[in-house]
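lol forgot to send this yesterday, sorry. struct tokens for the thing we talked abt
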């Protein structure tokens, strides 16, 4: 049926056409980009080693490239900075051969030393990389990041930096063998007050990182010796990575954006976050950062030093920091955006009917869930956590929130993983939930302390939180507050456990159940619940060492079942794709991760002219 795009937009969101016009006017005299998309939020950083969000990942994958990248259709690892790689017969050693024409944006060559430096920085405790645990499959990587060395291990001692030296430049390193550790670790104060007695160059020396210890040499830190981590520079163009155990998804990890290299001279000269400013940044991806306007847009321009630049068709890209999904849709309908990464729930059924070629939801490898801070009463009681989960009607939550055919979830691993049977948490049972809450000391909700649901600014998250708030009040008699924050502050609050209940989502980083389960290991930066379980950790470790595929999946299933019994999280639903893209965009393919590399995209100008003429757009 013929329809007017402008009328559709006005029918859906008349008040927000003004918002779309404001975005259009914000360009001013700036020439329009070849391709514009709504990135859903202001990114918190573009440092590959310090991010964990999808909006950030889209920008980082345009600016940087790792040893491998991902095929835009299949998501399988393909050559990136490394033109090829070899795998040892025992599948524990990977050798990557870096292409001769790989260059940084300042024109300097990319070498194996750049990756050695970058992987060390990625794992360095001071960096605080939230994805560093991904790299723990590499020999001794966990020892380095978690400082879990023992007497007899080789260690590196970072001496104090000279005054005025940026904190991104490490102090001079000494290497030696740890003889013994004296004193307390000062865990409660957050200060390492121990003294490390180390054999260095034939003599015994005592080091401490604390001002409170006066009889030892004051140093920056003591770490496991990075030279013993399974990262080896064979020569200028060859890098070797050695794993502790065979890891079937290792190449998927290598192709993931946290493993992108950063330019050492740039990072050390400007420090964080200044090295990521447009006037300072040196990157190695298909695009360069031209400018960034906070709460407006990031503009990317094609890199003239990228090794595969001849295959990149887009010259300029604008990533709009539009958080309001209604505004995003209006930008799309008025021709100001070619791709939107989310849509208003109320518009989805109409868009599926009228624009099936542009909006066709597909299942994805992702899950929507709530984190529970188990370090705070009453959420430290598993009976309370189970009651909260069992009191929820997930179908009602989906209808109030995303409304695009999402599937209710009782597991953290979404369905569809080859060879894996998902575990299941408790299903909806209001009577049993009331009984559990009473057993925990809160009959009918009486005496239940005030808690809050924390969510980042987004219409869908708000609707879901309000629905859950209502269900918990209706079914359990408890009062729950709501608190929303912008994305960066939200991430900070959850990371520091300054919340009671917080919304969350997770997109699988590789096609394996491990990508959903290992975030709940006791030592994983992405856990963010305070939950620690030795048996869960043991099962996950056993799975990482298991070479029999079927037995490995059984171990992972047992770990998930334990997680679903303890419930430091409440699964809500598995996602379907929620983006909408113009028919004239080429190189955008539906896939399980909703991952769409910008270097693969292009515009069919003839089709764009036809579409704009048909819709009365400029």
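and heres what i got for the seq, position by position
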């Amino acid at each position: 049926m013929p329809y007017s795009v402008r009328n559709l937009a006005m029918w859906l969101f008349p008040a927000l056409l003004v918002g779309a016009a404001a975005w259009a006017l914000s360009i001013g005299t700036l020439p329009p980009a070849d391709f514009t998309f709504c990135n859903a939020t202001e990114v918190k950083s573009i440092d590959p080693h310090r991010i964990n969000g999808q909006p950030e990942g889209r920008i980082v994958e345009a600016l940087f490239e790792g040893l491998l990248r991902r095929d835009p259709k299949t998501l399988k690892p393909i050559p990136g900075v490394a033109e090829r790689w070899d795998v040892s017969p025992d599948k524990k050693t990977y050798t990557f051969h870096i292409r001769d024409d790989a260059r940084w944006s300042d024109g300097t060559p990319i070498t194996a030393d750049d990756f050695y430096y970058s992987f060390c920085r990625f794992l360095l405790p001071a960096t605080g990389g939230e994805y560093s645990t991904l790299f723990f499959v590499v020999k001794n990587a966990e020892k380095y990041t978690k400082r879990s060395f023992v007497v007899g291990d080789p260690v590196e001692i970072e001496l104090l930096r000279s005054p005025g030296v940026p904190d991104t430049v490490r102090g001079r390193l000494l290497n030696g063998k740890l003889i013994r550790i004296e004193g307390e670790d000062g865990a409660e104060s957050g200060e390492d007050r121990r003294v490390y007695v180390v054999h260095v160059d034939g003599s015994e020396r005592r080091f401490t990182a604390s001002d409170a210890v006066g009889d030892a040499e004051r140093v920056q830190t003591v770490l496991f010796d990075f030279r013993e981590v399974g990262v080896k520079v064979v020569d200028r163009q060859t890098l070797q990575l050695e794993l502790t155990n065979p890891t079937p998804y290792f190449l998927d990890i290598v192709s993931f954006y946290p493993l992108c290299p950063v330019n050492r001279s740039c990072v050390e000269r400007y420090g964080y976050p200044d090295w990521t400013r447009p006037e300072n940044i040196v990157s190695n991806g298909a695009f360069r950062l031209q400018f960034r306007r906070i709460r407006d847009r990031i503009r990317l321009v094609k890199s003239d030093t990228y090794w595969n630049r001849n295959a990149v068709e887009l010259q300029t890209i604008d990533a709009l920091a539009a958080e309001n999904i209604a505004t995003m849709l209006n930008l799309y309908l008025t021709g100001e955006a070619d791709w939107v990464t989310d849509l208003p729930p109320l518009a989805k059924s109409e868009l599926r009917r009228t624009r099936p070629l542009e909006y066709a939801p597909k299942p994805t490898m992702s899950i929507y869930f709530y984190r529970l801070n188990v370090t705070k009463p009453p959420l430290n009681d598993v009976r309370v956590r189970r009651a909260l989960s069992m009191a929820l009607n997930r179908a009602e939550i989906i209808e109030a929130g995303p409304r695009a055919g999402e599937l209710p979830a009782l597991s953290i691993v979404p369905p569809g993983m080859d060879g894996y049977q998902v575990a299941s948490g408790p299903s909806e049972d209001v009577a049993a939930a009331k009984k559990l809450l009473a057993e925990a000391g809160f009959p009918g909700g009486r005496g239940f302390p005030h808690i809050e649901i924390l969510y980042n600014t987004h219409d869908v998250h708000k609707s879901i939180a309000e629905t859950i708030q209502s269900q918990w009040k209706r079914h359990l008699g408890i009062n729950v507050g709501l608190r929303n924050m912008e994305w960066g502050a939200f991430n900070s609050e959850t990371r520091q456990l300054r919340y009671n209940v917080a919304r969350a989502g997770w997109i699988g980083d590789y096609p394996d159940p491990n990508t959903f389960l290992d975030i709940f290991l006791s030592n994983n930066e992405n856990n963010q619940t305070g939950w620690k379980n030795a048996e869960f950790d043991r099962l996950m470790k056993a799975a990482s060492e298991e070479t029999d595929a079927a037995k490995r999946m059984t171990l992972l299933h047992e770990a998930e079942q334990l997680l679903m019994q303890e419930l430091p999280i409440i699964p809500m639903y598995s996602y379907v794709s929620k983006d909408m893209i113009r028919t004239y965009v080429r190189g955008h393919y539906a896939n399980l991760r909703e991952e769409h590399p910008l270097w693969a995209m292009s515009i069919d100008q003839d089709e764009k002219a036809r579409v704009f003429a048909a819709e009365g757009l400029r």
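The domain at 363-576 is CATH 3.10.105.10 (Dipeptide-binding Protein; domain 3). anyway ping me if u want another try
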